[in-house]
């Protein structure tokens, strides 16, 4: 099967094999060695010298951790949303009692840093800015450096970033751009199965943590910090996935992050060109289109669900549809992590065969 959803993604065989190894004691020396080595390597990928923790949970777990460890009920925050996952970040903050100003931008576009600047000028009480780096639901990458430049550089706010579908695939300079907390999840560019989430935590985030009163137990970063001093996680970890993580991080860093980023840029370009060559339209403006997931408009008159169904049944190609209000309007091709040009060509060839059956004449 050519699994081209934007996570989970297909995994290299050697990474899959690591997960059949026997269990080890997560309070023993072998695990401590693994966790310490992985933590140091994760920091390299996140380009940070801040603290970093591995949580057993999906990406949303780390988003919740980012919120509850830094904020108190009643805190005023700005949430920048360009799609479903941006909205989720706001929802988490609201559920835990933050007063959220939602700055939402049209689907398919990016955050306008000027709008953020205006909103921050208008409300001096804002404590934090929440933003998605790469919005998987619309296939758009925000200019995080510019956004964080306003939030941190100009207004010195706490900056919480959802880097779930960007870190390890797209450049994200956690410290240099002034991001206090960045989260990611294993099933994306990391070449891992779902089940682990990663969270960076700056000195500034720790200062916020000292005052933060939102309820937290499993996600209390203070527990993660004190256990990591012993080379342990606070709770029983997903040991098998951690074996895989150990090898995946080695592979990423052996290749070099510069090369990993270039590879994603290349596969993104190839996908977009192939889509345009078929006569299809990209959902976002090409200049802001993501190099980890390509969102494509379902052509007028074509049934999006049927399109994905035929691709799966006749070509063993699995794409993602649109979420929420984009359901039936777009389809999405994931190309993060371990993805070859041949696999993208296979998707394009399958589209070329299936679309005419649904009434769309490809070029
Ligand atoms: N944010 C973004 C940008 C995502 O792509 C996803 C997963 N598609 C999430 C948040 C939620 O992550 P999870 O499903 O791992 O909880």
Average pLDDT across residues?
Answer: 98
Strand content: 15-25%
- Count the E strands: 14
Q: CATH superfamily of the largest domain, called what?
A: Type I PLP-dependent aspartate aminotransferase-like (Major domain)
Chain oligomer state: single chain
Uncertain ranges: none
The hetero molecules present are: 4'-deoxy-4'-aminopyridoxal-5'-phosphate
Structural class: alpha/beta
Cα-atom radius of gyration: 20 Å
Instruction: State the share of residues found in helices, binned by percent.
Output: 40-55%
Pattern of helices and strands: EHHEHEHEHEEEHEEEHHHHEHEEEH
Largest sheet: 7 strands, mixed
**End-to-end Cα distance:** 26 Å
Highest CATH level, the class of the largest domain:
Alpha Beta
Count of helical segments? 12
CATH architecture of the largest domain: 3-Layer(aba) Sandwich
Q: Any idea of the CATH topology of the largest domain?
A: Aspartate Aminotransferase, domain 2
Q: Tell me, what's the shape?
A: globular
Provide the number of structural domains. 2
Question: What strand line-up does the widest sheet have?
Answer: 2-10-9-8-5-3-4
Can you walk me through this structure?
With 363 residues, the protein is α/β, with parallel strands linked by helices. It has 2 domains: 13-254, Aspartate Aminotransferase, domain 2 (3-Layer(aba) Sandwich), CATH 3.40.640.10; 256-358, Aspartate Aminotransferase, domain 1. The chain is 41% helix and 16% strand. The protein contains 12 helices and 14 strands. Strands 2-10-9-8-5-3-4 form a 7-stranded mixed sheet, sandwiched between helices. A 3-stranded antiparallel sheet has the order 11-14-13, with helices on one face. A two-stranded parallel ribbon has the order 1-12. Strand 6 and strand 7 (140-141) form a beta hairpin. Helix 5 (113-122) runs parallel beside helix 6 and helix 10 (257-277) packs parallel to helix 12. The model has no long low-confidence stretch (mean pLDDT 98). Residues 7, 58-60, 85, 132, 134, 136, 162, 164-165, 185 line the site of 4'-deoxy-4'-aminopyridoxal-5'-phosphate (PMP).
């Amino acid at each position: 099967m050519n699994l081209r959803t934007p996570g989970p993604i297909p995994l290299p065989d050697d990474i899959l094999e690591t997960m059949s190894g026997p269990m080890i004691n997560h309070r023993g020396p072998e695990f401590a060695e693994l966790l310490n080595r992985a933590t140091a390597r994760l920091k390299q990928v996140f380009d940070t010298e801040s603290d970093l923790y591995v949580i057993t949970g999906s990406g949303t777990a780390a988003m919740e951790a980012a919120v509850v460890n830094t904020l108190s009920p009643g805190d005023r925050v700005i949430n920048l949303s360009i799609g479903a996952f941006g909205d989720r970040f706001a929802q988490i903050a609201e559920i835990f009692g933050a007063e959220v100003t939602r700055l939402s931008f049209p689907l398919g576009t990016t955050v306008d840093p000027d709008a953020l600047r205006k909103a921050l000028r208008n409300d001096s009480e804002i404590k934090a800015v929440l933003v998605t780096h790469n919005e998987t639901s619309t296939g758009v990458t925000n200019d995080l450096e510019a956004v964080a430049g306003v939030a941190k550089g100009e207004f010195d706010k706490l900056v919480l970033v959802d880097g779930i579908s960007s870190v390890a695939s797209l450049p994200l300079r956690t410290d240099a751009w002034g991001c206090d907390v960045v989260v990611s999840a294993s099933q994306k560019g990391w070449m891992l199965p779902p089940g682990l989430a990663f969270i960076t935590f700056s000195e500034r985030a720790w200062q916020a943590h000292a005052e933060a009163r939102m309820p937290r137990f499993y996600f209390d970063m203070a527990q993660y910090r004190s256990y990591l001093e012993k080379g342990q996680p606070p709770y029983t970890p997903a040991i098998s996935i951690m074996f895989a993580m150990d090898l995946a991080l080695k592979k990423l860093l052996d290749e070099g992050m510069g090369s990993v980023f270039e590879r994603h840029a290349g596969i993104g370009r190839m996908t977009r060109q192939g889509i345009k060559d078929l006569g299809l339209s990209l959902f976002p403006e090409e200049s802001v289109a993501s190099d980890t997931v390509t969102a494509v408009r379902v052509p007028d008159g074509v049934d999006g669900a049927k399109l994905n169904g035929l691709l799966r049944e006749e070509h063993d190609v699995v794409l993602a549809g649109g979420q929420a209000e984009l359901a039936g309007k777009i389809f999405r091709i994931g190309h993060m992590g371990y993805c070859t040009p041949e696999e993208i060509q296979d998707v394009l060839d399958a589209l070329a065969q299936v679309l005419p059956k649904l009434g769309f004449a490809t070029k």
